[in-house]
Write a structure and sequence with these properties.
The chain is of the alpha/beta class. The chain folds into two domains: 5-211 and 408-425, Aldehyde Dehydrogenase, Chain A, domain 1, CATH 3.40.605.10; 216-397, 3-Layer(aba) Sandwich (Aldehyde Dehydrogenase, Chain A, domain 2), CATH 3.40.309. Helix content is 42%, strand content 18%. It contains 16 helices and 18 strands. Strands 10-13-14-9-8-15-16 form a seven-stranded mixed beta sheet, with helices on both faces.
């Protein structure tokens, strides 16, 4: 027996009571979550700054505003999402009606990540509540101030008999996973994702895994260099590069490599100044282990600019590496930090081949003035998400799903896709008891077989 048996029984009792199936209950939880964000905005932003060095502006832009938009989008569409949808009735089953009826799964476990500890905790919570589930939230212990604040505030706003926050380290996750959930969503590393999936298999529990990977950016010779560099710099160095969909490395046409590096340096200095260490909007590495791992990557290529660091602050400057050995550790592992390797290519075909030979990434970025070439890149490669001529921005569209493919993850959420993830779409058919023709019942005479064949073709 685990320490969470009583909690699981309480949540199961709440779910079985049917209260979470009510649209008013779901809407009330979502509105209360919005009120939490409004009432505690400054505290949440301060916690993000203490945990990750995020400025209040960056914290609001990448975390609070994203969650608020998701809440509003969900509230606007929830009545329609919850409606049973009628589908065509086959002629053989006439008279009658068929429907797709979404129903909640039950008890959901959401295991959050430290790099966006509010967004990656509350966005899936929105979807789970919209679908009518009870939820256990496990924030990352690597963002302790944010985790503690969520644990203290969520019970004040949300139904405590249906939504619980559990804090702690790996031992707590291990204990949680010994319980039977109806769905598990995990955001984080591939290593832990495998642990989650093995534990879920014990109960045949479905999982959604958001695991990251090495997300490439392909820069073709006809790209707008200045705009491309600015958008690459923003997507790479926001949150000090600790973003699962950040451009992990760049494949750039060799004819414009030097121009791109110079433009990236200019973009970096425009955003963070000549000394990013003193820039208000430049973050810090989350802990010493990640910091030391990133510093070891600096020897995997030639530092074109950046490369300076301060261990006491866990500061590492926006850095571009050239002359990178593609077999070095920085090209094997997800970087998850502010180092951007630049790899020259001679053609789009070479870039496609480079990407195809590696694991499918969570995100893919293409930069070109040719829609034909961008379509070619889209059709020839596989990625969880793709954004052309920009970075990260697909996350702002609630009409687009977010999720990985292959080793970058499985499942998806955001908007209606999240509602579907945390719902079971039940097939429902209504039949009339009259008429009740005898041709469907044995014995199947030659005449009955002829009738059935004709009716099934209608």
């Amino acid at each position: 027996m685990t320490q969470f048996v009583f909690l699981m029984q309480q949540l199961r009792t709440t779910f079985d009571s049917g209260v979470t199936r009510n649209i008013e209950w779901r809407q009330r939880q979502l509105k209360q979550l919005a009120a939490l964000l409004k009432d505690h905005e400054n505290e949440l932003l301060e916690a993000l700054q203490l945990d990750l060095g995020k400025s209040h502006a960056e914290g609001w832009l990448t975390e609070l505003s994203v969650v608020n938009k998701e809440i509003q989008h969900t509230l606007n569409h929830l009545p329609q999402w919850m409606k049973a949808k009628r589908v065509r009735q086959p002629f053989l089953a006439m008279p009658g009606k068929s429907y797709l009826h979404p129903e909640p799964l039950g008890i959901v476990l959401i295991i959050g990540a430290w790099n966006y500890p509010i967004q990656l905790m509350l966005s899936p919570l929105i979807a789970a509540l919209a679908a009518g589930n009870c939820v256990i939230l496990k924030p990352s212990e690597l963002a302790p101030r944010t985790a503690e604040l969520l644990a203290n505030t969520i019970p004040q706003y949300l139904a405590h008999d249906a939504i619980n926050v559990v804090n702690g380290g790996a031992d707590i996750v291990t204990d949680l996973l010994q319980n039977r959930f109806d769905h598990i969503l995990y955001t984080g590393s591939e290593r832990v994702g495998k642990i989650v999936m093995r534990a879920a298999a014990e109960y045949l529990t479905p999982v959604t895994l958001e695991l990251g990977g090495k997300s490439p950016a392909v820069i073709l010779a006809d790209a707008n260099i200045k705009t491309t560099a600015r958008r690459l710099a923003w997507g790479k160095w926001i949150n000090a590069g600790q973003t699962c969909i950040a451009p992990d490395y760049v494949l750039v046409d060799e004819s414009i490599q030097n121009e791109l590096v110079a433009a990236l340096k200019e973009a970096s200095q425009t955003m963070f100044g000549v000394t990013p260490q003193s820039a208000e909007d430049y973050g810090r590495i989350v802990n010493d282990a990640h910091f030391n791992r990133l510093i070891s990557y600096l020897s995997n290529g030639k530092v074109a600019f950046g490369g300076d660091f301060n261990a006491s602050e866990r500061y590492l400057a926006p850095t571009v590496l050239t002359h990178v050995n593609i077999d070095s550790p920085i090209m094997r592992d997800e970087i998850f930090g502010p180092i951007l390797p630049i790899i020259p290519i001679s053609s789009l075909a070479e870039a496609i081949d480079f990407i195809q030979q590696r694991e499918k990434p969570l995100a893919l970025y293409g930069f070109s003035n040719s829609n034909k070439k961008l379509r070619q890149l889209t059709e020839a490669t596989s990625a969880g998400n793709q954004c052309n001529n920009d970075t990260l921005m697909f996350m702002l569209n609630p009409e687009l799903p977010f999720g990985g493919v292959g080793r970058s993850g499985m499942g998806r959420y955001h908007g209606h896709f999240g509602f579907e993830t945390f719902s079971h779409v039940k097939a429902v058919m209504y039949r009339s008891t009259r008429p009740d023709p005898s041709f469907r019942y044995p014995p199947y005479t030659k005449f009955k077989r002829r009738i059935m064949r004709w009716l099934s073709s209608q």
